[in-house]
Amino acid sequence: METQNNEASSFNNQKLSIPAVNDVERQTNMEPEANDYFNYSKRSQWLRAAVLGANDGLVSTASLMMGVGAVKQDIKAMILTGFAGLVAGACSMAIGEFVSVYSQLDIELAQIKRNNRRGEVGEAEGEKESLPNPIQAAAASALSFSVGAMVPLLAASFIREYKVRVGVVIAAVSLALVAFGWLGGVLGKAPTVKSAVRVLVGGWVAMAITFALTKLIGSSGL
């Protein structure tokens, strides 16, 4: 009788241990999915920031070129203005991003030092691996801005006829705005059509206002 009871008890213990093993396996299998989701989210944020930087370069440089084109029709003035806008904007984006990320880095380093004082060495080592890189962030911002700014510059570089040049710049910028708006919507999980239309209309408004105000000031002789 005792042998049967022992066998029954052993069998019950084995049955109870099976779900625990399954739970461990299930948790182990879920961990890579969670890590993949985190990495995807992190990549999406970087890509979205790059798209926004390129869109800034596109709109600001195109608006500058359209503004100068409102009062000066020669190609040299428009190209020089666009190039100056590209360099100035890329430098501004890089310096601004460097200062911002470096401030964030100082805050996180201070927090790591406080964790070290409390003896949380393992946690502090993990935090060091995920620290932001100011130089990398500055370079990425400058590069993305420059990519966007190159669109109107390349569109206007080889066209001497003023009206054709302006039309080609508007067409190229419009196409790029739609592409950036669509990509931003995809990365931000937003409706792509609405995002593309919103970015396109915003770019048109910026170019139109710059062109109109520059034309007004130029015609008044100021």
UniProtKB/TrEMBL annotation:
<dbReference type="InterPro" id="IPR008217">
    <property type="entry name" value="Ccc1_fam"/>
</dbReference>
<comment type="similarity">
    <text>Belongs to the CCC1 family.</text>
</comment>
<comment type="function">
    <text>Vacuolar Fe(2+) uptake transporter.</text>
</comment>
<keyword id="KW-0926">Vacuole</keyword>
<dbReference type="GO" id="GO:0005381">
    <property type="term" value="F:iron ion transmembrane transporter activity"/>
</dbReference>
<keyword id="KW-0406">Ion transport</keyword>
<feature type="transmembrane region" description="Helical">
    <location>
        <begin position="77"/>
        <end position="95"/>
    </location>
</feature>
<keyword id="KW-0812">Transmembrane</keyword>
<protein>
    <recommendedName>
        <fullName>Vacuolar iron transporter</fullName>
    </recommendedName>
</protein>
<keyword id="KW-0408">Iron</keyword>
<dbReference type="Pfam" id="PF01988">
    <property type="entry name" value="VIT1"/>
</dbReference>
<dbReference type="GO" id="GO:0005774">
    <property type="term" value="C:vacuolar membrane"/>
</dbReference>
<dbReference type="GO" id="GO:0140315">
    <property type="term" value="F:iron ion sequestering activity"/>
</dbReference>
<keyword id="KW-1133">Transmembrane helix</keyword>
<dbReference type="GO" id="GO:0005384">
    <property type="term" value="F:manganese ion transmembrane transporter activity"/>
</dbReference>
<feature type="transmembrane region" description="Helical">
    <location>
        <begin position="137"/>
        <end position="159"/>
    </location>
</feature>
<feature type="transmembrane region" description="Helical">
    <location>
        <begin position="166"/>
        <end position="187"/>
    </location>
</feature>
<feature type="transmembrane region" description="Helical">
    <location>
        <begin position="199"/>
        <end position="218"/>
    </location>
</feature>
<keyword id="KW-0472">Membrane</keyword>
<keyword id="KW-0813">Transport</keyword>
<dbReference type="GO" id="GO:0030026">
    <property type="term" value="P:intracellular manganese ion homeostasis"/>
</dbReference>
<keyword id="KW-0410">Iron transport</keyword>
